[in-house]
Design goal:
The structure holds three protein chains of three kinds. By secondary structure, chain A is of the alpha+beta class. Chain A has one helix spanning about 60-75; strands at about 5-15, 20-25, 30-35, 45-50, 50-55. Chain C has helices at about 30-45, 50, 85-100, 120-135, 190-200, 220-225, 240-255, 270-275, 300-305; strands spanning about 65-75, 80, 85, 105-115, 140-150, 155-165, 185, 235, 255-260, 290-295, 315-320, 330, 340. Classes of the chains: A alpha+beta, B alpha/beta, C alpha+beta. Chains in contact: A-B, A-C, B-C. Chains A and B meet through strand 1, strand 4, strand 5 and helix 1 of A and helix 1, helix 2, helix 7, helix 8 and helix 10 of B.
Chain lengths: ~80, ~375, ~350
Amino acid sequence: MCLAVPGKILDISGSDTSRTGTVSFGGVGKEACLAFVPEAKVGDYVLVHAGFAISVVDEAEAAQTLEYFRQIGELGELEDKP
Amino acid sequence: MKFVDEYRDQAKADSLAQAIARITTKPWSIMEVCGGQTHSIVKYGIDELLPKHITLLHGPGCPVCVTPLELIDKALQIAARPEVIFCSFGDMLRVPGSGGDLFSVKAKGADVRIVYSPLDALKIARDNPGRQVVFFAVGFETTAPANAMAVFQAQAQKIPNFSVLVSHVLVPPAIEAILSAPDNRTQGFLAAGHVCTVMGFEEYLPLARKYHVPIVVTGFEPVDILQGILMCVEQLEQGRAEVENQYARSVQREGNRPAQQLMAKVFRVVARKWRGVGEIPSSGYSLREEFAAYDAEARFGVTGYHVDEDSECIAGQVLRGVRKPQECPAFGTRCTPERPLGATMVSGEGACAAYYQYRRHQQTSQTSLTAGKRS
Amino acid sequence: MADKSDLPFTISCPVPIADQDFVTLAHGGGGRMMHNLLERIVIPAFGNQPLESRHDGAVMKIDKGRLAFTTDSYVVHPLFFPGGDIGTLAVTGTVNDLAMCGARPLCLSAGFILEEGLPIATLERVVASMARTAKAAKVNIVTGDTKVVDRGKGDGLFVNTAGIGVVEHDLVIAPTSVRSGDAILLSGDVGRHGVAIMAVREGLQFQTTIETDCAPLADPVLALLAAGIDVHCLRDLTRGGLATTLIEIAESSRLHVDIRERDIAVEENVCGACEILGLDPLYLANEGRFVAFVPAAQADRALQILRSHPVSATAARIGAVSESPAALVTLQSRIGTKRILDMHSGEQLPRIC
């Protein structure tokens, strides 16, 4: 399904299935359950769906994708995919 | 907003659109499975950016739309009980059952509440020990971890007055149902990025091989969708049929293991009826025996319903991408978002509703238009 | 006087409030209890000569010009929300409707329908809000009415306000005056009120409070008129938001409205809230924002004037009117594609799909 929004973890408390944190979405803070992202740390971006973080945004991958866009924009021809 | 705005950028969208145009030499039909992707495609007019050869088909990716009429009727039955606080995602409120929807049941005095998360429903149960709190657990695999956690915590915290009405559906069986149909038109898929965030994409490999179709795991922003289409067209032009991952910033091959583990603990795979399509084997979730006490259908004795769909409705064909909404004789006349005949008009994510909101004016004459009329 | 609706209310009268803490049917009976309610709470708060004459109606002198007259009822739930309450809305909404006619708001009436069991303290808070808002909008609440209904027959408190204003110019400000070629100006960022209400009503608590944008709009409107801007149409963006307002104007005027998404400002925290809830800010209610349709040649000057007033300091040009396709609103999306904006069938609900 669909609506998952990226937000930045501001703080974390609890552990295992009761691990929660405050996630900031464009400045709006909302509590989210972090039980499914045990590796997430304060400062990480997570995708939150229905009050649950379902992944940690891989910033390196994101940067690579954006770089790829820049390249195809510049060169105007198809590059190898990242 | 970070990780959002960059993927709604015009320059990037244009570059991708041009790249797609450069490599497309033949007509191709590509289906996106997820309602959120349909929403984005129609909202941002993505098909306007594509060469004419490329047809986008909108698949059964709206769990709201594919929830069978029987289940809505069960929800209405349960919600009408005075002891029940019925909690649901907003998406389900206006979906009509055989007579009325949750919104109208609420207007008649039922305690129906919109929640953002199933844990909010659990909290309501804790705060209202004298009432029965029922949560309408609708969704694809993306929402299953959240729903599993709510049931898991209900049991762990011994909250007896909580139960869930489960309507979970799975994407890969739906894709297989589409591909195996004799009138299938779909040549490539954009797989749902958030479903795959949870489940990974390994289960799509056998599908790609068996039916020789490229499957690209794709995100939801316009730039993501354009890149997904580019990757899919590239495979089609090159005669490849592999699973690729456009949404690598969120999706890993194995998906989210902790989420999958909890889902496996709480749910088991069952056959499910999809509105407009019919029953698909191994295509949904039900609660496991250990958690059966939290099943609302059993608790409220609302089993054994059967309801027939409207005969005029072609939702099944629309969901499989075989017909387009505008091809339906009832589209925009007898069937509108206010009075939907079937699955694909009931929610904003359904293909028919999405087209109705954004596109139907294009069918009518430019000089004499009023909302609600069409030629 | 309290500035925020969540500060404790203080009354100026040193005599303690009557022994009732809750509204009862007796308060609506026309007898001593109702009299006390008005004397202790309502009249001192609104404090003006016509009201203090305690007559059935207010009579006032108008020198010249035309009269503008409007009414609205306020049934918002919850009664109190971040940055305002039903009282703030009741005054601002009606003042703004007068402003949208190009009128200088003069005075308001206030009708209260109280549900038996409403805490008197709630009524005091609402009345104080109304007094404060009226003062800021430079209007008096000169007449009114109070009724009490049985418990269960009202949602706590309903308010109706009617307003009179004076139109001191000769323009016809209406959708019928909109012309092909007109520029469309938007007075500020959108979506705040809708999100503020949704957050409280659905219990979707954010840790950062988003406040309503509720504000009186007469000042910038009167400034435009005083400067001789040929204002064709004005409309505030209440229920249904910017999109619905523009659709209504396009349909009434049978012209084409085209706007650009990148020129419509939405605050980052409103964006964040809308993303989480799956809401479209273009369809969310605003209580302190308006659009103005002016001849293209006057658009820059009009913007300058709007930007010199705090409530429209971030005014922007968002689009233009043309002949066809008639009666349609189109939006140029952020990625350069065009789509038609249509009305939603009902109110937006939060979604996860």
